[in-house]
């Protein structure tokens, strides 16, 4: 039932994106001493959303309504932003990776807050008589 509501779809996508990013950051940290390893990252969440002019997840209840489709493609893992190379030709910076890990955690917390808020609204609307 909840998977049909676009708010929960966005929260799920955001949580999935942050989980994927956290896994990539963990791989980067694990390979910090690997010679020649190139740091990776996940494309920003904003690129996973449709363009801003399209209506996201709206359903046409009449012919006069507009509707949009959400792209269900997987997250794109990309080579990390231009980073300086260490003496061992490794592009992993532990300081940057820790910041990216914190950013991914905040993004995941935001997704959970959106999900909880949506559930609270649904519960209130169902219980209100």
Keywords:
elongated; 46% helix; two-stranded antiparallel sheet; 129 residues; 2 strands; single chain; mainly alpha
Can I get a quick summary?
The chain is mainly α and about 130 residues long.
Structural class: mainly alpha
Beta-strand content bin: under 5%
Q: Walk across the major sheet and give the strand order.
A: 1-2
Number of domains: 1
The count of strands amounts to 2
The secondary-structure element order is: HEEH
**Ends apart, CA distance between termini:** 22 Å
- What is the makeup of the main sheet? 2 strands, antiparallel
Q: What would you say this structure looks like, in words?
A:
The chain is mainly alpha-helical and 129 residues long. It has helices at 6-30, 94-127; strands at residues 40-42, 77-79. It has one domain (18-127). Helices cover 46% and strands 5% of the residues. It has a two-stranded antiparallel ribbon with strand order 1-2. It is elongated and about 65 Å long.
Question: Layout of helices and strands, plus pairs?
Answer:
Layout: H1 6-30, E1 40-42, E2 77-79, H2 94-127
Antiparallel strand pairs: 1-2
């Amino acid at each position: 039932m909840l998977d049909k509501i676009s708010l929960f779809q966005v929260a799920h996508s955001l949580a999935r994106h942050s989980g994927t990013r956290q896994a990539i950051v963990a791989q980067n940290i694990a390979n910090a001493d690997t010679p020649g390893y190139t740091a990776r990252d996940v494309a920003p969440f904003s690129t996973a959303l449709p363009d801003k002019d399209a209506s996201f997840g709206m359903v046409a209840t009449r012919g006069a309504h507009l509707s949009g489709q959400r792209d269900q493609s997987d997250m794109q893992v990309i080579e990390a932003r231009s980073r300086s190379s260490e003496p061992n030709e490794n592009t992993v910076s532990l300081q940057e990776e820790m910041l990216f890990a914190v950013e991914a955690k905040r993004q995941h917390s935001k997704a959970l807050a959106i999900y909880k808020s949506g559930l609270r609204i649904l519960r209130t609307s169902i219980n209100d008589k």
